[in-house]
């Protein structure tokens, strides 16, 4: 008792207020309150020796059932307080770790009610603690977690002291739309609680689908290119010599490669007709910029139209360079086109809306469009 009040046997009968107390709280005021209410009080107090005590004050009744003061007892609880503090620190540490995790986490009771969630959960699902904590898991949002089989798996986590991983779901969630997720759950050691984690697979799934689509598209385009190469080789088969065959085929393959480069530069969305003609005939303007004349409005082309037209322009330019206007001094090549209405086009059988023409100094020659 001397650790709390410096009392001597001779101090019996002296008011307690005369002594300096060595613990927190107000003993005299608390004793008066107990006398006034005639009900006991328990208070945890800290002594100056850094020890904790449970102070218990009760009214003192004499044998003839009269209240004759109070009785105060002190029970040391230092070890219990230390254990409680360790548990609290461990809880705070665990909560800090949970909150620092970058994927959503929920802590559930055995009744599958939410006791807490981390910042990543609130951010992903765009909700607040007020509409989350204390509520059953199955009632969150649009009842998005009321998924067949999930509740049974979660209950087994505690009953069998086990865990589960990679439980995949695909669901329409409130506020954030459709998501694909992997769920993981495990019991928290030493507590009847479940830790439920979630990994969003939506972007990964979308990427896998896009890669699969790209793979199929690439395979399709490669088969088409090989078919075009085979067709070019077949069309070149009428050459008189091996050298002529090689020169013609290599030229056509180069034109095909340029055509694909042009379309690739446009992200396979197609190309513009005027731009395509300018690019295809650009090589003939190196020494004489005015040797090629291009006239016409912009016309959007699909990738298939752009590839086909590029090969046609290559053939026309090659013919003009070998046998036509560009094989003669002063010769010129003109590329012109115009748009015709559907009605006009249907009434002009045999006529084409545009074409390439080559001109020599003294006589004119035209190439088909």
What value does the average pLDDT take? 76
For this structure, the CATH topology of the largest domain is Beta-Lactamase
The main sheet orders its strands as 5-4-8-7-6
Count up the domains.
3
Contiguous low-pLDDT stretches (5 residues minimum) are 345-355, 358-369
The Rg value, from CA coordinates, equals: 45 Å
Biggest sheet details: 5 strands, antiparallel
| CATH hierarchy: architecture of the largest domain | 2-Layer Sandwich
Let me know the number of strands.
14
The run of helices and strands is HEEEHEEHHEEEHHEHEEHEHEE
Structural class: alpha+beta
Topology:
Blueprint: H1 27-37, E1 41-46, E2 52-61, E3 67-76, H2 78-100, E4 105-108, E5 114-117, H3 119-125, H4 150-159, E6 164-173, E7 177-187, E8 194-200, H5 202-235, H6 242-265, E9 271-272, H7 273-280, E10 292-295, E11 300-301, H8 303-322, E12 332-337, H9 342-346, E13 354-359, E14 364-367
Parallel strand pairs: 10-12
Antiparallel strand pairs: 1-2, 2-3, 4-5, 4-8, 6-7, 7-8, 9-11, 12-13, 13-14
Helix pairs in contact: 6-8, 7-8
């Amino acid at each position: 008792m001397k650790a709390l009040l410096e009392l001597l046997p001779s101090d019996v009968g002296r008011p307690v207020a005369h002594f300096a107390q060595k613990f927190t709280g107000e003993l005299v005021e608390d004793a008066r309150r107990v006398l006034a209410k005639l009900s006991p009080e328990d208070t945890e107090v800290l002594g100056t020796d850094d020890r904790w005590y449970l102070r218990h004050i009760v009214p003192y009744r004499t044998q003839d059932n009269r209240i004759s003061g109070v009785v105060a007892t002190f029970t040391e609880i230092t070890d219990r307080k230390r254990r409680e503090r360790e548990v609290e620190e461990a809880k705070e540490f665990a909560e800090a770790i949970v909150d620092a995790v970058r994927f959503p986490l929920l802590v559930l009771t055995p009744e599958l009610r939410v006791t807490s969630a981390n910042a990543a959960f609130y951010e992903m699902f765009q909700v607040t603690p007020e509409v989350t904590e204390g509520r059953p898991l199955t009632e969150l949002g649009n009842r998005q977690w009321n998924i067949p089989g999930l509740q049974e798996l979660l209950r087994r986590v505690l009953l069998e002291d086990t865990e589960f991983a990679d439980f995949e779901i695909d669901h329409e969630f409130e506020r954030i739309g459709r998501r694909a997720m992997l769920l993981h759950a495990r019991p928290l050691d030493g507590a009847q609680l479940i830790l439920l984690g979630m990994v969003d697979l939506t972007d990964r799934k979308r990427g896998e689908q896009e890669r699969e689509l790209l793979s199929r598209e690439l395979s399709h385009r490669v088969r088409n290119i090989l078919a075009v190469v085979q067709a070019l080789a077949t069309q070149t088969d009428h050459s008189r010599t091996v050298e002529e065959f090689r020169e013609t085929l290599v030229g056509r393959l180069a034109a095909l490669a340029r055509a694909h480069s042009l379309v690739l530069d446009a992200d396979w969305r197609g190309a513009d007709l005027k731009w395509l003609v300018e690019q295809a005939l650009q090589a003939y303007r190196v020494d004489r910029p005015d040797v090629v004349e291009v006239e016409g409005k912009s016309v959007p082309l699909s990738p298939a139209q752009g590839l086909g037209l590029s090969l046609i322009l290559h053939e026309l330019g090659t013919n003009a360079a070998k046998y036509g206007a560009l094989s003669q001094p002063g010769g010129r090549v003109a590329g012109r086109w115009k748009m015709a209405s559907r009605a006009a086009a249907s009434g002009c059988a045999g006529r084409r809306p545009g074409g390439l023409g080559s001109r020599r100094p003294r006589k004119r020659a035209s190439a088909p469009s």
